[in-house]
Amino acid sequence: MDDNSFTFTAIQGTQAGAAYYVIMVPLKVVPRLFKFDDESMPTELRAQRVLNKARVPTIAAYIANNAEEYILSSLCASIDGGMEFEPVASTGPLRKVGQLKVDMGAVILINDGQHRRAAIEEAVRDRPSLGDETLSVVVFPDKGLARSQQMFADLNIHAVRPTRSIKLLYDHRDDAAALSRKVVDAVPLFREFTCFDTASLSNRSIKLVTFSSVHQATAELIAGAVPAMKSPEEALDRAARFWSAVIAQMPDWQRVQTREVASGELRKNYVHAHGVALQAIARAGVQLIATHPDDWEARLGGLRRIDWSRSNKAVWDNRALVGGKVNRATNNVTLVANIIVQALDLPLSPDAARVEAMVAPIPVRAEAV
Question: Residues of the signal sequence (predicted)?
Answer without folding.
Answer: none
